[in-house]
Amino acid sequence: MFQKSISSLSVLFFSAILLITCQNEKKYVGTQKNSKIFSVEDPHSYSNPSKIRVTHMDLNLEILWSTHILKGFVTVTLDKNENADTLILDTRQLKISAVQNISGKALNYWLGDSKAIFGAPLYIVLGKDDKKVKIVYETIANAAALQWVSPPQTHDKKEEFLYSQSQAILARSWVPCQDAPAVKFTYTAKIKTKPGYLALMSATNPQEVNESGIYTFEMDQPISSYLLALSSGEISFKALGNNCGIYAEPGMLEKAAWEFADMQKMIDEAGKLYGTYMWKRYDVLVLPPSFPFGGMENPRLTFATPTVITGDRSQVSLIAHELAHSWSGNLVTNATWNDFWLNEGFTNYFEQRIMEKLYGKPYDEMRQVLAWNDLEKTIAEMKADGLLGDTKLKLNLKGRDPDDGLSDVAYDKGRFFLCHLEKIVGKKNWDDFLNKYFKANAFSYNNTEDFLKYLNQELLDKNPEWKRLANASEWMYGEGLPKDAVKPVSRELDKVDLLITNYLNGTLKIDRLDTSGFTSHHWQYFIRQLGKKLVPENSMNSIKIVIELNSIYILTEIDKQYKFSNRGNAEICCDWFTLSVKVGYTQNRPQTEKFLVSIGRRKFLMPIYEALVKTPEGKISAKQVFEKAKIGYHSVSAISVEEVLK
Ligand code: BES
Ligand code: ZN
After folding, report:
1. Which of 110, 270, 536, 644 lies in the 20 to 30 Å Cα band around 509?
2. Which residues does 338 contact at the CB level (< 8 Å), separation at least 6?
3. How far is the CA of 344 from the centre of ligand 2 (A)?
4. Interatomic CA distance for residues 206 and 306, integer angstroms
């Protein structure tokens, strides 16, 4: 699913930055509100929460549409140790104009050196009794977290649209904050936008437009900075259940509501599995196609890509996934980005359980097989790139972009580890354990070691055989997949394999293949397995040419029969266009280019661009397309693509 987006060269570059930054790192020791000892060394934040910690924020921002700037102030409330006097916040390209205490007295402040990705620390010298600090600031135009979408790039093509993407460490580019996932705070906000537009946040949200364009928000449950979110535009709302609904551009609203009709059922089933939903409402905002991710679990308001509105409800697992984060991630948060698998692995496992419950086992087995194959491929590629260290669940991202940890490893090695534990201890014991785990750690954070300790204490120590079979330290600290990992199977997809064999060996002609009842998952598997046959990794050159000629013929025939190049389903388009480029089937290049220009979801862009740059002709066309497309991409995607084109 996720490919590695970073070259070894940039690893070297960031390691060099690390050498410079880590000299200032301290071990944080202090207390957090929930009485857990605050002891987190976060390699991606300059802040000092063990001494002075932000517990609440009051934001007051105006959206300046004409200049693409957010401008205003934030008042932070602090919890501090007796003798601590310097508050440190993370910032990235923020323009700070004043810092004051609650009585309006100017406080001494300065910005430290600025570094790529990490930004600059903001030091503020506090008076003895200062518990609140007001920071007056504005963002630069087009801050890294923010995407200012022009009307032609929206669904309805009429109005502008703004959205933020704070994970992993982009919150600091629009709010000065302690940008470390272990630091949790409540917040309120007053946002001024264009009259007639709606504004939405990861908080209590309006459901109707108000003519003043001024909205107030409250999030009274503590969240991490990476979950701070803001969006504004011409947006309407439609309720879907008791406590859930859809926000989208008016022209998209009904389609989205139809696609996600099962949302209430998902919330109910999730609650039955691992404890009541804690965040009051669960709404989903459908964003313009440039959104760089599939979904983002902003509390109370998931942000979602429109590429999952396929008209056949085949991608609703995205909702199950982002909803599951309401427990794994938003309630129980990874202590640092080195423990990212605690967010995503748990969420993928939870998503799987919700999907199985709603749509049955055969359906979920298909998804597991697809994920397993992706994971094997990713691990092989990472090995080839000398990145085996990143195939451990526990990561070491010190000095590097946390995005480097965004691979199938956290998601699916993490998920399959939990499946493995479930099998060993049995579903009932496992579910009881997870229930307890979420309750015991709600509104707090954990690192891999905390989890391991809790797992042993509450579960594995009860039975020496469980503990032996669990093999937990190899899963967490070993490279690749452990030998005891069990490959999932799917009867449905076995049928697809048989069909491909019969077709390729000439037993059945294309129009005799029985594809009745195929879902988009069958098709995705079909394209990927075909790819494995047609583009073998290690074939000798002379054989390769023969295969290539034949492959172009095969893809032409298949496209004529199944019309993959003209389907609306982005998952299928991505797989098909990638295979087409690899094989040299160029007839669908116009559709491929249109796809790359109209969609900004990184997961779909990367494989196609990566395949294109492998030939001189492809590289030229990749560069041309990127020139056209980049204005529509969020910085997260644009930077990744640029990396590939270099
Ligand atoms: N929280 C992630 C997205 C993310 C991770 C953004 C790391 C920035 C840094 C979100 O929950 C996610 O996993 N999204 C997936 C979709 C999902 C169905 C696997 C995606 O965007 O593809
Ligand atoms: Zn996720």
Report:
1. 536
2. 43, 394, 395, 396, 397, 398, 405, 447, 448
3. 5
4. 22
Active site includes 269? no
**SS3 state at 126:** coil
Strands 301-304 and 282-286: parallel
168: cis peptide before it, omega within 30°?
yes
Q: What is the mean pLDDT of residues 133-141?
A: 98
pLDDT tens string 12-57: 444 444 333 333 332 333 334 444 446 688 999 999 999 999 999 9
Query: Mean pLDDT over residues 497-518, rounded?
Result: 95
Structural domains in the chain, CATH included, are 8-234 (2.60.40.1730), 333-477 (1.10.390.10), 491-645 (1.25.40.320)
Mean pLDDT of 164-184: 98
DSSP state of 3: P
pLDDT of 607 above 80: yes
C-beta of 294 in contact with ligand 1 (< 6 A): yes
Number of neighbouring beta carbons within 10 Å of residue 512: 9
DSSP three-state, residue 161: strand
**Residue 530 DSSP label:** H
Residues 200, 247 contacting (CB under 8 angstroms): yes
Question: Is 322 marked active-site?
Answer: yes
Pocket flag, ligand 1, residue 405 (CB < 6 Å):
no
The mean pLDDT of 316-340, rounded to a whole number, is: 98
- What tens digit of pLDDT does each residue of 407-442 get? 999 999 999 999 999 999 999 999 999 999 999 999
The pTM (predicted TM-score) of the whole model is 0.94
What are residue 223's DSSP bridge partners?
Answer: 185
Q: Which pLDDT band holds residue 539 (cuts at 50, 70, 90)?
A: low
Place of tokens 């926000």: 247
Atom 14, ligand 1: residue with shortest CA distance = 295
The single residue listed with the structure tokens 């979904």 is 295
CA of 449 to the centre of ligand 1 (A): 23
Which is the catalytic residue, given 249, 322, 492, 593?
322
629 versus 538: the higher-pLDDT residue is 629
Å from CA of 223 to ligand 1 middle? 17
Mean pLDDT of 454-479: 98
Phi-psi region at 94: left, alpha or beta (left = phi > 0; alpha = psi -120 to 50): beta
Q: What count of other Cβ atoms lies within 10 Å of the Cβ of residue 498?
A: 11
Residue 635: strand pairing partners: none
DSSP conformation letters of 56-114: EEEEEEEEETTTTEEEEEEEEEEEE-TT--EEEEEESS-EEEEEEETTS-B--EEE---
Using pLDDT thresholds of 50, 70 and 90, give the confidence band for residue 245: very high
Q: Provide long-range contacts, Cβ within 8 A and 24+ apart, for 563-571.
A: 564/523, 564/527, 565/591, 565/592, 566/591, 568/310, 568/311, 569/310, 569/312, 569/314, 569/520, 570/307, 570/310, 570/595, 570/599, 570/601, 570/604, 571/307, 571/310, 571/314, 571/315, 571/520, 571/524
pLDDT of residue 300: 98
Instruction: List CB contacts of 259: < 8 A, sequence separation 6 or more.
Output: 308, 309, 310, 311, 313, 316
Query: Which two structure tokens, joined as six digits, stand for 496?
Result: 């697809």
pLDDT value for 20? 36
Contact 161, 146 (CB under 8 A): no
What pLDDT digit, counting tens, does each position of 82-130 carry? 889 999 999 999 999 999 999 999 999 999 999 999 999 999 999 999 9
Q: 149 has which bridge partners?
A: 161
